[in-house]
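User: Hey, my collaborator sent me this sequence without any context and asked if I could get a structure. I don't really work with proteins. Can you help?
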Amino acid sequence: MDTLLRGNADEIDNSLVTFIKSTFKGKKVAVHIYEDDTMDETEYILSDPIAKERLLSSIKNVKNHQYLREYTLNEIESIVNDASI
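Assistant: No problem. I've predicted the 3D structure and written it out in structure-token form, which is a compact way to encode the shape of the chain:
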């Protein structure tokens, strides 16, 4: 199993150790720490003015319950099945 955890060093606490111990109980693990200078998804989207505007507009629409669509489980399954053809 390969697991990558990303975060800020100042946010690391004992809960990370607890998570690792419970997730990989009884197994050997290696912890590799390096400086990650890549942008996360949110930073990447917000760096593009057009994408940023679309994202913020979409968040506003959800908060205002505008332009939302509801689907039944059958409709979702049908959409997924049609897309996989």
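In plain terms: The CA atoms of residues 31 and 49 lie 37 Å apart. You can pass these tokens on to your collaborator as they are.
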